[in-house]
Amino acid sequence: MEKKIIRLKEVDSTNTFLKNLDTYDEDALTVAVADYQTAGRGQGVHTWESEPGKNLLFSMMMCPKWVPLRQQFLLSEAGALAVKDALDSYTDGITLKWPNDVYWYDKKISGTLIETAIDSKGIKRCIFGIGIDVNQTEFHSDAPNPVSLAQILGHEVDREEVLQKVIEAFCKYYELLRRADYMDVSGLYHLSLYRRKGYHWYEDKDGKFEGAFVEVEDDGHLILHDKKGVIRSYAFGEIKFLIPSVNIKQ
């Protein structure tokens, strides 16, 4: 897969930059990487805190028209696995927190914002906006549990090296999807999940409860069962993972 990388000193959002491109190669992976984003976004209403020149802020755009619309969550799985593969080469303890955050033990090291354009034929275009905390060592936002590679390793890391590792890993998983090897990608995603085993604390609209992982469905819904054996299904934004550093009370 051909790769085209656009390097930016500063931009409002790399996702927005790619969406506004007048022309692009639908058969290539187009990547926009910036030293700083003035309006970097996370999921929902969240923003992404990043010190200029310290972290990895980039977006990848592709046109996977051959992915079935009902299984588009496979793209999210491929993107999350690519970041995990890259970070695995530096440290252990890397897992994927549903739907597409990347954790080092109980701390968040990376997040992804995915924007998909759909037409009458299916998926037209997909953009992954990825933030990886690489060399920042102080965080000032209200994010409860950020961590960077530099904090984990005790020294700074070459951001370009991390970027190239993510891109290469993503191309590997993207090719698996192109060959319709969906179970390979989905299986690896499930094996890599944060809190895959045992009961853990969560919170939904009805309050806090202990639940155990069952599966992530093809459409991306998270399935848990509680200690009463009740099966619970959640779309993104409907459940909160209560991390150990939070004072959890029954």
UniProtKB/TrEMBL annotation:
Top EC category: ligase
Recorded superkingdom: Bacteria
Positions in coiled-coil regions: none
EC annotation from Swiss-Prot or TrEMBL: 6.3.4.15
GO MF entries: biotin--[biotin carboxyl-carrier protein] ligase activity
SUPFAM superfamilies (alphabetical): Class II aaRS and biotin synthetases
NCBIfam families: birA_ligase
Name the UniProt record assigns to this protein: Biotin--[acetyl-CoA-carboxylase] ligase
Organism: Segatella copri
